[in-house]
Design goal:
Layout lengths: L2 H31 L5 H24 L7
Helix pairs in contact: 1-2
């Protein structure tokens, strides 16, 4: 394992926690704005948005946007 992989493995737990915090914060915001919202529906829609964002980042990587970041 090279230095980059070791670094990211050591931060993996924190990165995953940050994604979870992003998700939970947006669940709260939606609940504040629309208290009667179906939480399961909100969760699924938020997950779709997060997946879309990750897909866009993946496309940027494939397009070379981060080659010389």
């Amino acid at each position: 394992m090279d230095a980059v992989e070791k670094e990211l493995v050591s931060r993996k737990k924190n990165i995953k926690k940050e994604v979870e915090l992003l998700f939970k914060a947006n669940m709260k915001f939606t609940d504040w704005d629309i208290p009667e919202a179906d939480d399961e529906k909100v969760a699924k829609l938020l997950l779709d948005i997060i997946k879309e964002a990750v897909g866009e980042i993946e496309q940027d990587i494939n397009d070379g946007k981060y080659k010389d970041y």
